[in-house]
Amino acid sequence: MRLLTAYIGRELLLSFVAVLGVLLLVILGGEVARLLTEALEGRLSPDLVTKLVLLKIPMAMEILLPLSVLLSAMLTFGRLYHDREMEVLAASGVGNRYFLRLVLSLGLVVGLLAGWSALVASPWAMQQERQMLAEGQMRVQIKALTGGRFTPLSSSNGVFYAEKVTPDGRLSEVFIQLRPADRPDMLLTAPSGHFALDGERTVLILDKGQVTEGALGSERLVVESFEQMSVWLPDWQVKLSALEVEATDTLTLWQGRDNPRMMAHLQWRFFVGLSVLMMALIGWRLSKVGPRQGRYSRMAWGLGFYLVFTQLAITVRAQLQSGHLPPFPGLLLMLAFPILFWLPLKDWWSRLTRKVAS
Fold first, then answer.
1. Is the same domain home to 83 and 161?
2. pLDDT tens-place string over residues 104-120
3. What is this structure's pTM?
4. How many of the other CB atoms lie within 10 Å of CB of 14?
5. If you count DSSP H runs as helices and E runs as strands, how many of each does the chain have, helices first?
């Protein structure tokens, strides 16, 4: 039995890795093309493309892991049925419980990976993506600045000047004139400074400079020195969409579970791991093919079931977000869907067709 377990386990693992690799290439290929286009158009720093693509992997796992388990189970056991190996094993006393245990073992391991990805890795990747996009936009804005040239500041009716501007945002001999509508004119000078991100805000940090407030020649003119000063200018702010609930960490979702939107996404993250087990069972059940049937003959059934199952789950999540469905049982309804609907219906259909044929 150890040799048999190693043989079938290796087939399951190789099929799973192959399917997951192909699906990742398909999904990430489109993402790479989109990011490269933005980099060529100057809207994204080129050195961030690889990092952003890698951050897409945890997000894609929520969809790809259940589908990969489904297809790998169908491919592995479909080949065993097609080559008549399952008949030999059944004649040798190997029952369905043995194969079911192997499938559930794969589903449990991948389900834990999918759960960790949905609960921890995916929200973290989304937050890191937002941070990198902000840094990329800031770098693009810095590259637009030219040392030794005055740059108008439309938001404050002022002007910016730096003798030298390095690619990493370091400045020398900085001169900024601001003319805000509700305050006196301001003049900022500093021998050095640099750009930095404060959360999602771009700030210019000046070192050991002076600030002059008031127009020259007026009665009130204030001159102050500073060791370090942070200047916020709207002209250089990054433009990111609001933080979506998908990027919120799981602990925050749990604390705000009274909110229907947060509760729906909290349930979804736990549902992703459990759905892998469902897909493993369905893949094993659909893998049985006849002697004259191809091993890929039921692949369309598996893909169709996955699409219907996933779309229904997304619909239930949307209803939970809007408050039209109660939090309990919520997405737990979808876990009963394969057992209470698909499997009995399939058996009843087979019995009905046999009766009609007889």
1. no
2. 899 999 999 999 999 99
3. 0.74
4. 13
5. 10, 6
Does the residue 151 lie in any domain?
A: no
* 296 and 216 share one domain: no
What's the domain range around 221?
156-232
Residues 181-195 as b/e (b if ≥16 CB within 10 A, e otherwise) read: eeeebbbbebebbbb
Three-state secondary structure readout of 210-236: EEEECCCCCCCCEEEEEEEEEEECHHH
Residues 19 and 131 in one domain: yes
Phi, psi dihedral angles at 45 (to 5 degrees): -70, 130
Do 134 and 197 sit in the same domain of this protein? no
Going by C-beta distance under 8 Å and a sequence separation of 6 or more, which residues neighbour residue 136? 44, 45, 48
- Residue 333 or residue 164, greater confidence: 164
pLDDT digits (tens, 9 = 90+) for 306-332: 888 888 888 888 888 888 888 888 888
The neighbour count for residue 337, using CB atoms within 10 Å, is 17
- Give the pLDDT confidence of 154-213 residue by residue, as tens digits: 766 788 888 888 877 788 888 888 877 667 778 888 898 888 877 667 788 888 888 888
- Asked if residue 195 and residue 118 are part of one domain, the reply reads no
- Separation CA 162–CA 173 (nearest Å): 5
| Residue 289 shares a structural domain with residue 170 | no
Coil, helix or strand for 102? helix
**Are residues 347 and 278 both part of a single domain?**
yes
Does residue 326 lie in a domain region?
Answer: yes
On whether the CB atoms of residues 81 and 288 are closer than 8 A, the answer is yes
Question: Which of the listed residues 181, 198, 232 is the one where a domain comes to its end?
Answer: 232
pLDDT tens-digit series, residues 344-354: 555 566 666 66
Q: Which two tokens stand for residue 218?
A: 């007026």
| Residue 21 pLDDT level (bands cut at 50, 70, 90) | very high
